[in-house]
């Protein structure tokens, strides 16, 4: 024996062939395309839930502030400079001490709640404010708010929030068409 081994044996190289890689990419692409509508619907539901939470927080804060400070408090969607109320409830909301809706002084603004993104909010009454009295009631301002995602397609559903005369906001269980 001379101690030399024959090194001409073939070894099996590990890895994927180009065809295997293309088939895998094709299958991943098909699965991704099938899941895309579900992912978009999840985004719409998340945007709606975020907007509902924003509105509930704003209304609760305004009501509790009116009760604790024993004075009128106004909640309204603000203009860009936060000096007046407007009627687009999808915009930033301001909580104001008193009943002013025009020429609002900076020191009368108790809180600014940033605008919701990718949602549309409409108030059934079309008013540009909700006023709470010292007991936390919204007498005369009751109504409902429709919350729909900003990129709603035909047949998509939203949520409805109902504001009672007692100043409480609740979610209506029945979905609405957007």
> How large is the count of helical segments?
1
Oligomer: single chain
Order of helices and strands: HEEEEEEEE
CATH homologous superfamily descriptor: minor pseudopilin epsh domain
- Mean of pLDDT: 86
Q: Report the end-to-end length measured between terminal Cα atoms.
A: 88 Å
Which value, in Å, is the CA radius of gyration? 28 Å
Report strand %: 25-35%
Model regions low in confidence, pLDDT < 50 over at least 5 residues: none
Major sheet summary line? 4 strands, antiparallel
With strands numbered from the N-terminus, the spatial order across the biggest sheet is 3-2-1-5
CATH topology: minor pseudopilin epsh fold
Q: What class do helices, strands and sheet pairing give?
A: alpha+beta
**Shape annotation:** elongated
Number of domains: 1
Number of DSSP E strands? 8
Question: What is the annotated CATH architecture?
Answer: 3-Layer(bab) Sandwich
Helical residue percent band = 25-40%
Class, according to the CATH hierarchy? Alpha Beta
């Amino acid at each position: 024996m001379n101690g030399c081994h024959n090194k001409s044996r073939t070894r099996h190289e590990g890895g994927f062939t180009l065809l295997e890689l293309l088939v895998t990419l094709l299958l991943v692409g098909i699965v991704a395309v099938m899941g895309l509508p579900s992912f978009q619907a999840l985004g719409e539901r998340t945007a709606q839930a975020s907007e509902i939470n924003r509105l509930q927080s704003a209304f609760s804060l305004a009501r509790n502030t009116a009760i604790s400070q024993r004075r009128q408090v106004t909640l309204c969607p603000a203009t860009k400079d936060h000096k007046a109320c407007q009627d687009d409830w999808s915009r930033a909301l301001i909580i104001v001490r008193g009943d002013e809706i025009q020429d609002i002084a900076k020191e009368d603004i108790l809180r600014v709640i940033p605008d919701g993104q990718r949602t549309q909010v409409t108030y059934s009454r079309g008013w540009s404010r909700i006023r709470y009295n010292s007991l936390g009631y919204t007498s005369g301002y009751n109504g409902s708010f429709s919350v729909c995602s900003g990129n709603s397609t035909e047949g998509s559903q939203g949520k409805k929030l109902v504001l009672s005369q007692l100043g409480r906001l609740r979610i209506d269980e029945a979905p609405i068409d957007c």
